[in-house]
Every structure is written in structure tokens, then in C-alpha cells.
Design a protein that fits this description.
It holds the Pfam family tRNA-synt_2b. Belongs to the class-II aminoacyl-tRNA synthetase family. This is glycine--tRNA ligase. This protein has 449 residues and is an alpha+beta fold. It folds into two domains: 3-88 and 155-328, BirA Bifunctional Protein, domain 2; 353-448, Rossmann fold (3-Layer(aba) Sandwich). Helices cover 33% and strands 29% of the residues. The protein has 14 helices and 24 strands. The strands form seven sheets. Strands 3-10-11-17-14-13-12 form a seven-stranded mixed beta sheet. Helix 2 crosses helix 10 (319-330). The chain is globular.
């Protein structure tokens, strides 16, 4: 076996372990699985949804609630077709597609090495053609062209078309931003690599409106903010790299793009992106802004209002890719007594479950009662992300919670009934310590911060 073959086998093994864990522990399931699955779609299970929501909450806290210059919006997925005509997506949102003349399998032409021979059946590949990735639909009962709409391929346009509404409602001064978390849809030719490339996915996106002369300053500023947030949620920053995207590979609206790439097992691929969209979108939507003089200038009678079209710096984060990169960042294994223990080393602040509460034996009513009423219920009321686990022996519970990424397991035993203390086990080290029940809330809160 060659070095490259061994490396590919190792990488495939990592992804297989991650995909298996995600299904086994209720993170992610194949979409429509009982009917054979639908390519490029996935359903989120209980713990995957919790993790995804924690990531979104962390993003919203930093970029919206933690700032004075950001305004949230949740725009409709369906918009008039004129929106997508003005944005250039109807004409320009396409990938190069190539089809096998024999088996009719379709490929993205920019992702295959041999553009003449089919990798599936060996047949001849046809000519490369452009394939528009927007999902088209009809709105209402009419079937004519005026009823045509699209599932949005990006969340950005929902913010641009609400630019005037936001300015009229809040009267913000430049620079300011709009932020949105929402679904987007792309009819990918070849969805692949688990959560990496899907047909339905979720974005966390910001449109930051600035004066044209300030774009370089704010581009660098947002680059730093994005890196800080990635580190905050626990991404392995040694696997994150910046790529200056060349002109020929940039989106039609971008004058500069930096991709933050991640070392996935299947290669170094895009994680998040930062684009300078200039005034492309607001100009095409025929929107402008009255730029007022600064307060000091106005009070001094200097300066005057001018009508401008703001420029835009756009930080874009994929929720699904963030989940995948985070799981890959925190996945770990250790070996003891010939057994391998896989576990997820989430930060307590981002973990789907903060702690799990267990009675040592589930067939002892006194332990179950104490664990339920005096430990689980108060912790659940205070922290929310607390699990009850009495399935199997204590060793199996530890292994299960380790794979979920639960930082702490709290066990009520017979000594608890007399000393009002519980055993708290640390996920990463396996170490255990006795903590008074009265001090549990404080103990966990200090660990989260």
C-alpha cells in the first residue's frame, strides 16, 4: 500500500467514524432515509439540532446582540423573480456541468480531472454546459411566467431588499450592518462529503454597509472578527487557512474574496467566506442612502447631506459546515485496556448537553427519586441543556455521553443519601470528584465560563 493510499484510507476512516457517530448518537440523519434517501439533504436529530442552535446563538450573541451597529432580519425564502434578475443570479448563478453520453451520469466539470472519459462507466463525456443551480417554482395558481419564483440560493438578497426598510425604521449611520440566519437552496450537480455540500443548507450572513473609501479597513476588520469567532466556538485553528480567491474564481458580485478553508479529511475546502460586494447589489436594486454629516460637523454648521450608494463587506458563515468542522476539530480517541474510547471535546458553552444526571442503579427507587428531584430538576431548570440517563450500566452511560460530547456526568449513589454529595466525572480526563449537591450549580457555571 502506497503512502497516498494509506493516507486516503485514514481520511476515509475518519469520515466514516464521524458519519457513524452522528447517526448513532442522534446528531444527523440522511434525509428521507426510509425511502432510500434524497441526495444532498439531511435531517437534524436532537443533539445535532442542539449543537447547531448553540452555534447560531454564539454567532448572534457576538455579531448582533454584542454590537450597537447591527440589525437583525428574517426575510422570506420566496421573493419576486425581479430580485434574482437584478442580483444577476438568473443569468449568472451557474456551475459547469458535463454529462456521460452512455450512462447519463452528471458531473461538475471543474471537479473532475478527465473531461473526456466517464469515471463511472468509462463512456464518453459530452460538452461542458452551464447549469443554473436555483430551484425554480411557481407562486399561486397561475402557470405563466409571471408566477415564477425561486428558492433563494443565498440569504443576502433578503437583506438588500430590506435595506430601505431598515434605514427608514432605525435611521442608522454608516457604517452599520444587517444580519440574518436562514435557509438557502442550491440544486447542486453532485452533492457530496456529508454536510459539506448540500442542496438545502443554512447560512449566517452579514451585510456591512460602508463608505466606499473605507472598504479595505473594514475588510481587514471583519477578517479578524471571523477568526476570533471561529476560535471562540472551538474550531481547530491549525486547520483553518486563508485563501485569496483569484478574480476568475470569484462570484460575479465580488471585487475581492477571501475564503477561510478547513482541512477536512477529504481535502482543504471552503469553510466560510468574506467578500467585498462593492455597491453591486444596492445599485442594481436602485437603492441609495442619505449620508448625514457627523454630529460634531452638524453642530458646527459644517458638512451637508449627500446621497450615496453604500458599499458592502459580507462575512458569510455556513451553519452546516461549521457543525462539520467543529465535530472534526473536537473528535478524539483514547485507548485503555485495549479498548478505544471515541469522544467529542466540545467546549462546555457549545456542547449539546452540559451535564448528564444518573442514579447509580435505576432499580433503586430512593436513588432515582433523589437524582430526579434534588439534582436533575434543579440543574435542568437552571441550565436547560441537562440530560437524564439511566440506560445501561454506569460504564455504558459514560461512553454514550462521551460520544455526545457531554463535559460532565453527575452520579447519585448510596453515599449521596447520607452526605448530600454526588460524583462528577470529567469527560476529557475521566477524573472524578465529590461535589456537594448545594454547590453543583455554582460548580458547573464556573466550568462553562
Amino acid at each position: 500500500m502506497t503512502k497516498d493510499t494509506k493516507e486516503n484510507a485514514r481520511e476515509n476512516s475518519v469520515m466514516e467514524k464521524i458519519i457513524s457517530l452522528c447517526k448513532r448518537r442522534g446528531f444527523v440523519f440522511q434525509g428521507s432515509e426510509i425511502y432510500g434517501g434524497l441526495g444532498g439533504t439531511f435531517d437534524w436529530g436532537h443533539y445535532g439540532l442542539a449543537l447547531k442552535n448553540n452555534i447560531k446563538k454564539a454567532w448572534w450573541k457576538k455579531f448582533v446582540d454584542g454590537r450597537k451597529d447591527m440589525y437583525g432580519v428574517d426575510a422570506a425564502i420566496l421573493m419576486r423573480q425581479e430580485v434574482w434578475q437584478a442580483s444577476g443570479h438568473v443569468k449568472g448563478f451557474a456551475d459547469p456541468m458535463i454529462e456521460c453520453e452512455k450512462c447519463k451520469e452528471k458531473f461538475r466539470a471543474d471537479q473532475i480531472e478527465d473531461k473526456k472519459k466517464c469515471s463511472e462507466c468509462g463512456g464518453k463525456l459530452g460538452e461542458v454546459r452551464q447549469f443554473n443551480m436555483m430551484f425554480q417554482t411557481k407562486v399561486g395558481a397561475s402557470d405563466n411566467s409571471s408566477a415564477t419564483s425561486y428558492l433563494r440560493p443565498e440569504t443576502a438578497q433578503g437583506m438588500f431588499v430590506n435595506f430601505k426598510n431598515t434605514v427608514d425604521a432605525f435611521h442608522p449611520k454608516l457604517p452599520f450592518g444587517m444580519a440574518q440566519i436562514g435557509k438557502a437552496f442550491r440544486n447542486e450537480i453532485t452533492p457530496r462529503d456529508f454536510l459539506f455540500r448540500q442542496r438545502e443548507f443554512e447560512q449566517m450572513e452579514i451585510e456591512y454597509f460602508i463608505r466606499s473609501e473605507d472598504w479595505e479597513k473594514y475588510f481587514e476588520y471583519w477578517k479578524g472578527e471571523m477568526m476570533d469567532w471561529m476560535e471562540e466556538i472551538g474550531l481547530d485553528m491549525s486547520k483553518v487557512h486563508e485563501l485569496e480567491v483569484p478574480k476568475e474564481d470569484r462570484a460575479h458580485y465580488s471585487s475581492r474574496t477571501v475564503d477561510f478553508e478547513f482541512d477536512y479529511p477529504f481535502g482543504k475546502k471552503e469553510l466560510f467566506g468574506l467578500a467585498y460586494r462593492t455597491d453591486f447589489d444596492l445599485k442594481n436594486h436602485k437603492l441609495d442612502y442619505i449620508d448625514e454629516p457627523a454630529d460634531a460637523e452638524a453642530m458646527a454648521g459644517k458638512g451637508k447631506s449627500t446621497k450615496i450608494v453604500p458599499h458592502v463587506v459580507e462575512p458569510t458563515f455556513g451553519v452546516d459546515r461549521a457543525v462539520l468542522a467543529l465535530i472534526l476539530s473536537v473528535y478524539a480517541e483514547d485507548k485503555k485496556d485495549g479498548e478505544t474510547r471515541p469522544f467529542l471535546k466540545f467546549k462546555p458553552s457549545i456542547a449539546p448537553v452540559i451535564c448528564a444526571v444518573s442514579p447509580l442503579l435505576k432499580n433503586k427507587p430512593e436513588l432515582v427519586e433523589y437524582a430526579n428531584t434534588k439534582v436533575y430538576a434543579p440543574l435542568k431548570a437552571e441550565f436547560g441543556r441537562v440530560a437524564w440517563d439511566d440506560n445501561g450500566n454506569i460504564g455504558k452511560r459514560y461512553r454514550r455521553q462521551d460520544e455526545i460530547g457531554t463535559p460532565f456526568c453527575v452520579v447519585v449513589d448510596f453515599d449521596t443519601l447520607t452526605d448530600n454529595a454526588v460524583t462528577v466525572r470529567d469527560r476529557d480526563t475521566g477524573e472524578q470528584e465529590r461535589i456537594k449537591v448545594a454547590d453543583l450549580g455554582k460548580y458547573i457555571k464556573e466550568k462553562i465560563l
